[in-house]
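My main concern about presentation is that the manuscript never shows what a single data entry looks like. In essence, backbone conformation is discretised, so a fold becomes a row of integers matching the chain in length. An entry of this sort, consisting of the sequence and the corresponding backbone structure tokens, reads as follows:
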Amino acid sequence: VAESEKNGGRLPRHEHWRRAYYKSPYMIGSCNERISTRFRNVFMNLNELDSNGKIVPRPDFAKDDSLHQKFTHLLEELNSRGGVQFDLVEEARKPILKYFENGDPIAVKLFDGFNPPSGSYLVKYSRREFLEPLLNKGIIRICPASYYQDSNHIESIHDSETERYFVIPTFRERLQNKTSIEFQEHTISFGHDDIVIPVVVPDYFMYSLCNEVYYRLPTDFEADAALVIHDQNLFAQRLISTFLASNPEWEPYAGDIAYYDPFMDHTKVRVPEMTKHFGYSYQREYRIAFRSKTSIKTQLEPQLLNIGPMTDYAQLLYV
């Protein structure tokens, strides 16, 4: 109130966010490990690399300031637990420092002199040896979602794509000295953490790209090349029709991934195959996915498809 009076009844946005967290401190019940993971996820997504390879604030702040709200809330929660520990900040910075391990990020060379197409386009980041057959012959390897659960995958790819989880905050009950919560007509007891609700979906097929050029992603995907697809609708149509020709009992989906916050977006995951944890939101993924219309009886395996040459609507950039 005093701060508001000093500024003619106005408060900076971060003060509004702090006040909102005081009224609804939704992370009070979470264990330290969950808070630390959330801090790293938010930190990872607050920054971007520009075309010169410099760290800059994420450019869509004017449209969506939700990440900055989350960061402010985290600072308040961590302060209540003794402050932000140096080790936590160092751990959160590691993925950012990786971009500069070998000098300038590889994307600076990869996209030097590149002029993005007008309108919507897609980018596939990978090794040149894999992207050249895709460009010249249209050979695509599409994998089941379960494939990405393999711990041998690099961090930017490794994810449990068949599982989404939600956190049910317990702060209201804790502030009333309760040890259980009523959820969907069930009484659920809690201990030293909030309640985590996993949502597991049947396996499905997916093919991931990005909806623009982003200078972090070649490093993240250990790529030395990028395939820029000028006509995303034509590419999606060819991939979908080729897949369905040999797999008619599957339903296709295509579009930008919706990123959800497990603390807040309990109703946002309407199509699980097209959603992902907000920790990956800096990747701006465009996905083509296929859901089986029937029960899956056997373990899914990767498939090789041939959608035809792409040379008339795509270009390959490489270092």
